[in-house]
């Protein structure tokens, strides 16, 4: 079998995988829409995987069905790595393989992608264990700070430390960043208010930034398991399927007491989770996003989604129409519009006004 296995994303691919695995399409249909499942397919071979936790508390990618021996194939190992799994487990043979990370001399974006996925997995556990522990507090801007925020920060920073670059986070003071040096910025738990209320989505967001550009990013909707990843030269992905922007009339916007509806929009969605909002523009679910009708947004809220957006072909322009550049400063607010094209972004800026 070749190494060109892809994640099935259509009804035709679902039926092809079902035929190869010897099951009815109805047995696999729900898996096509489940972020915790993958159907891998290539000419003459298919595999059905699910993500799960072991009794020891480790995450693994389980090969539930396969049409031929595929457990050691790079496509399965890549799925496991993107899921933040430690192992791949073949349920048929009992074989277990460790998921090795990139070598230390691998390009920084490649190492970031692997460790960011592991960090998201650690955060999943940390926020669940921290739920309802500690005292909830309102910050000066009206948003919530809860025990889960600190737990998520500590879990993520520990995993990302081997990258050897400064890590900026909403939960801590900014470290020094060398001029022209790379840095990581993360929001360990974006949408804290949603998390506290039990209202999805809430997300883990991380980005690798160099010279003002988010060159790689990961956003994981921790409430559903949806994952968006992207980087310069690698493209953008949603749950293992290539993602691409598309023009549209749906605009997503940050939560607030008042949301201004631009004349270019037929509808406005407010999710309460900025990282996910930008990814919805990146995968074509929405046409644009903006915070032009308010004081702005912080770099940790948007960097992960901006990396995915750029990799998917989208653009982000400041309120004066200039390309957005990111700075290692989690205090300063930035205002911009994100859209499928520069034309759409400029139309949105003009429609909302300054």
UniProtKB/TrEMBL annotation:
Domain of life: Bacteria
Coiled coil: none
Species this protein is from: Geodermatophilus obscurus
Keyword Hydrolase: yes
Pfam families for this protein: Inositol_P
Binding site for Mg(2+): 170, 187, 189-190, 301
GO BP term, example: inositol metabolic process
UniProt key word Hydrolase: yes
InterPro entries tied to this protein: Inositol_monoP_metal-BS, Inositol_monophosphatase-like
Annotated PROSITE patterns: IMP_1
Keyword line: Hydrolase, Magnesium, Metal-binding
Gene Ontology molecular function terms on file: inositol monophosphate 1-phosphatase activity; metal ion binding
Required co-factors: Mg(2+)
Lineage of the species this protein comes from: Bacteria, Bacillati, Actinomycetota, Actinomycetes, Geodermatophilales
Name of protein: 3'(2'), 5'-bisphosphate nucleotidase
Gene3D superfamilies: 3.40.190.80, Fructose-1,6-Bisphosphatase, subunit A, domain 1
